[in-house]
Amino acid sequence: MNLDKIDIESVAHSGLEELHAIARQTFYETFVDENTEDNINRYLTQNFSLQQLSDELNNPDSEFYFATIKKEIIGYLKLNFGKAQSVENDQDGLEIERIYILKKYHGKKVGQFLFDKTLKIAKENNSRYLWLGVWEKNLRAIRFYEKNGFREFDKHLFILGNDKQTDILMKLEL
User: Fold this and answer.
1) Active-site residue identified among 43, 65, 105, 145
2) Domain annotation for the chain: domains and CATH numbers
3) For the whole model, what pTM was predicted?
């Protein structure tokens, strides 16, 4: 795949329907094999509803970006600054809350392209570090973040439906 053909565009509120569709599809594809259908559907209903995503889009401390090829949305990125951060709430940090790619584009460097966009934004905002939470069983994502210099610094509880899971918190000093 030629990365020159991937575009990264900021998601405006007018892109809510598209965000809703890609968020639900990519989350489902990423986690369905390791979780029950019921827990996935509960989580999607609570955390990826149109209202929830609308609220997130309206948060001035959060930014969303679509990765597209020929106008087809193939993935997305969500970043949190300041008070929008889910754990740290540190003005010096920038949280990568979500990098999700359609399964058919896994291994095609789309995630790296979105991560590179994150680095650019972090530098523009004078962030001292990036951080994120990743499910301990999502070994593909953990390897990706480690390859990009992230290191584990803590863990926290993540609830998927009625399943208590552990997220590894990872940080990259800039």
Assistant:
1) 145
2) 3-128 (3.40.630.30)
3) 0.93
